[in-house]
Structure formats: structure tokens, C-alpha cells
């Protein structure tokens, strides 16, 4: 079973996203801060991280930089799920460099399509 780490400081997002991903057959762990994300990524080696940009300590961009600089976590793909990104931005293209961006509120089908492009379920 593929593991996904979801990161958001909004409990409702973690709840809804976690439920949807578990229903789709993924193992899910959750983090609410950037520092917690880095620690869990190193400890659990998830197959994918779904990362909010606005977090209470480090922002998602900083978290991605730290993870990219560490050999143990550099290959973990990241999908940024954020309210800072608009649906219009999304229509221009989901992928920026090696990361995908998806606007909040998100469509579950769009998110699952990106996840399935990024990792394949076992």
C-alpha cells in the first residue's frame, strides 16, 4: 500500500483529505507543521507528500527545499495543495518544475488523477 503524508494546519482539510485518500486505498499520515513534516518524511519515507504552503512555522516552500536537500527525502514527490494558487493558475498547468500545484478548494478527482500520475498504487 502506498503511503501519503498530508500536511495542513487546518484540521478540516486533514480530515476530509485523509478520508478520501484512505477510501482510495492509500495509507495516510498527517502533519500540521513544517518541522513535523520534515521529521515524518525522514521517519516514514512516504511515497508522496501533499503539502500546504501556509504553515505556522516553516512555509511549504521551505519544507520542500529542506526535503530536496536531504538525500533520504529528495526523491519524494510533492503536490502543493494551497489557497494561494487559483483555479486560473491551475488551468495554465498543474506542474511547476518537479512539483504539482492544486488550488483549494480542490476537486477529489483532480487530486487523485495527479496522485495516480505521480505514484502508482500497489
What is this entry, summarized?
With 122 residues, this protein is of the alpha/beta class. The protein has helices at 11-23, 34-44, 60-69, 87-92, 108-118; strands at residues 3-7, 27-31, 48-51, 78-82, 95-96, 99-103.
Note down, in words, how this protein is organized.
The chain has five helices and six strands. The protein is an alpha/beta fold. It has a single domain (3-118), classed as 3-Layer(aba) Sandwich (Rossmann fold). It has a six-stranded mixed beta sheet with strand order 2-1-3-4-6-5, with helices on both faces. α2 packs parallel to α3 (60-69).
Strand and helix layout:
Blueprint: E1 3-7, H1 11-23, E2 27-31, H2 34-44, E3 48-51, H3 60-69, E4 78-82, H4 87-92, E5 95-96, E6 99-103, H5 108-118
Parallel strand pairs: 1-2, 1-3, 3-4, 4-6
Antiparallel strand pairs: 5-6
Helix pairs in contact: 2-3
**What name is given to the CATH topology?**
Rossmann fold
Class computed from helices, strands and strand pairing: alpha/beta
Uncertain spans, ≥5 residues at pLDDT below 50? 89-96
Architecture, according to CATH?
A: 3-Layer(aba) Sandwich
Features of this protein?
122 residues; alpha/beta; six-stranded mixed beta sheet; 5 helices; globular
Amino acid at each position: 500500500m502506498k503511503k501519503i503524508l498530508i500536511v495542513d494546519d487546518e484540521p478540516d482539510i486533514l480530515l476530509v483529505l485523509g478520508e478520501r485518500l484512505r477510501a482510495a486505498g492509500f495509507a495516510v499520515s498527517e502533519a500540521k507543521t513544517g518541522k513535523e513534516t520534515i521529521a515524518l518524511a525522514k521517519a516514514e519515507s512516504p511515497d508522496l507528500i501533499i503539502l500546504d504552503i501556509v504553515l505556522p512555522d516553516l512555509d511549504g516552500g521551505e519544507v520542500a527545499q529542506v526535503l530536496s536537500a536531504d538525500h533520504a527525502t529528495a526523491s519524494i514527490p510533492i503536490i502543493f495543495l494551497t489557497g494561494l494558487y487559483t483555479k486560473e493558475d491551475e488551468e495554465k498547468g498543474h506542474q511547476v518544475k518537479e512539483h504539482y500545484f492544486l488550488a483549494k478548494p480542490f476537486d477529489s478527482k483532480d487530486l487523485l488523477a495527479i496522485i495516480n500520475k505521480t505514484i502508482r498504487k500497489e
